Amino acid sequence: MVSKKWSLVKHDLYKLLMGALLAAVGAGMTYLIEALKLVDFGDYNMLIAAGLAVVANLVRKFFTKTDY
Question: What pLDDT, on the 0 to 100 scale, is given for residue 17?
């Protein structure tokens, strides 16, 4: 499936939404950890949220069949 320049196809929108969802999961996990007073990340909140989004994506990829 190919999307032309200046247009999006359904697959593009799906990938954008998945990326946004994974970013939200990372931010939510960071918020939950801080809300439970388990760890105070201080100035590193955004870095930890991004890292947890990567971990969430890794877990998703691990449990998903991928064809190359």
Answer: 92
